[in-house]
Amino acid sequence: EIVLTQSPATLSLSPGERATLSCRASQSVDNYLAWYQQKPGQAPRLLIYDASNRATGIPARFSGSGSGTDFTLTISSLEPEDFAVYYCQQRSNWYTFGQGTKLEIK
Amino acid sequence: QLQLQESGPGLVKPSETLSLTCTVSGGPISSSSSYWGWIRQPPGKGLEWIGSIYYSGSTHYNPSLKSRVTIYVDTSKNHFYLKLSSVTAADTAMYYCARHWALRYLDYWGQGTLVTVSS
User: Fold this and answer.
1) How far is CA B94 from each of CA A11, A28, A29, A43, A104, rounded to the nearest angstrom?
2) Is A44 part of the contact surface with chain B (CB cutoff 8 Å)?
3) pLDDT tens, B47-100?
4) Do A43 and B111 count as a contact with CB atoms less than 8 A apart?
5) How sure is the predictor about B25, in pLDDT bands with cuts at 50, 70 and 90?
6) How far from each other are the two terminal CA atoms of chain B, in whole angstroms?
7) What's the pLDDT at B73?
8) In this structure, which of A34, A97, B46, B79 has its CB flanked by the most CB atoms within 10 Å?
9) A41, A57 contact by CB (below 8 A)
């Protein structure tokens, strides 16, 4: 099983700041990595697929990068609605998720 | 706009079988490249993929759950289903259904249904 480790567990930032979230895979997943956003009481929402492609309707402030074992989700300038939990997910070997990064307001 | 909705009992007794239905609306469940999946999330924890199915009936299951999981589809009703047998308290979770596009990523999700395993 491919294990995804997300860091940091919690990230405290202010609106307008830049957020950088990390996801590291226990073995190479090529570019087969997605990012999801989950707000309290809601289902996850797909943000990024295949490492760097924004899903339909996702604002340009969200971007993804990386390949192999190291991936990054960047939010260029945080909006109030961006504070949530973010998960990465790989599809290289079955489907597993990271444990999540909570992005909270500082 | 594709919409998914989970339904089923919110309480299941230990050792019994959990049964859920996902109703798909806004498009045919037999759409090309559209697989349909189940994902769960224990309270306060992360996400776990359970399995996915194509309208033809072809299934893919999480190896860790495979012995207890059955997913099947009814194209005439635009529904797909989850059965999880021999449940324990560890199966208590929010259960989501989602479209698993081309078995690549999960792009449309239901709102989820909480299932508690307790006597």
Assistant:
1) 25, 30, 27, 10, 23
2) yes
3) 999 999 999 999 999 999 999 999 999 999 999 999 999 999 999 999 999 999
4) yes
5) very high
6) 39
7) 97
8) A34
9) no
B53, B75 contact by CB (below 8 A): no
Does pLDDT of A90 surpass 90?
Answer: yes
Q: Which residues of A touch B49 (CB under 8 A)?
A: 94-97
Torsion angle in degrees (nearest 10) through CA of A34, B45, B69, A37: -30
B96:A43 CB<8 A: yes
Q: Which whole number is the average pLDDT over A87-101?
A: 95
CB contact under 8 A, B46 and A87: yes
In total, chain A counts a number of residues equal to: 106
- pLDDT at residue B32 is higher than 90: no
The pLDDT of residue A93 is above 90:
no
The mean per-residue pLDDT over the stretch B23-32 comes to 94
Task: Nearest by CB to A49, from B63, B104, B111: name it.
Answer: B104
Q: Which residue of B has its CA nearest to A56?
A: B107
Chain B: residue whose CA lies nearest to A101: B46
Let me know: does B91 contact B115? Beta carbons within 8 Å: yes
Q: Closest CB to A87: pick one of B47, B96, B112.
A: B47
